[in-house]
């Protein structure tokens, strides 16, 4: 659950000044980024047009990749601060290790939720004996100031609540949807749900009008509020909605992401979320000197070094670029 860009761009996100207060249909295209040796991801957040959706601050979609004769995902130990990571798979497995001692294989439609709080480090890898295909999403949730220094911890939930209707199964990843609540710990009003929609289905999802929303397409062909959304793209929907029309042209997999617009301004760089450039500078120094972030045991390889900080001070630019 990482940003392996060796020249990451620092950005300020959060704040409500650029939140779209009414329903919109803003289609976001991905940026292609290498993750480790053999995995390429499609990065939807942060995006040239938008940096957050509620507390969701980072969204990567990857696969389906044929890794039958490949090592698959191989991400060495690296740090996180001020955020939660969400691992979500449609195919394959990912082995998670972290500096709290967690060791867990995450499988399709199981929730792997890591809360970094003040500091954590972890690694991600496809097991040696793995399925042929790897397909999933990796996401970050920004922690509000009151909780950003909590003790780091990891949760794994193999069983999650579901909301069903004709042609639709919605698995609640985080937060609450239509009365079903995920067991995953959250620190701000938020929702994440996996939507499996069968071909020919036309249905409507209930939404919270005070939340802003986006829908990520994982697979298949679907229309979200009348807009065609293809795999690897994301439709930003704004606020002010009480329901969301969905239509599946083929069997389709989608992710609904939403939450109360995030009021605090954040500084995000590499794998850290802070409130100032000083926060980021200190986190980088602590990782490079072996302080604070702990040790990931059992990974066969070296940990990642942090990239160099940019030579110019961070310039706030708000929620959108």
TrEMBL record:
CDD domains: cupin_pirin_C (cd02247). Residues 41-141 form the Pirin N-terminal domain. Residues 193-292 form the Pirin C-terminal domain. Belongs to the pirin family. This is Pirin family protein.
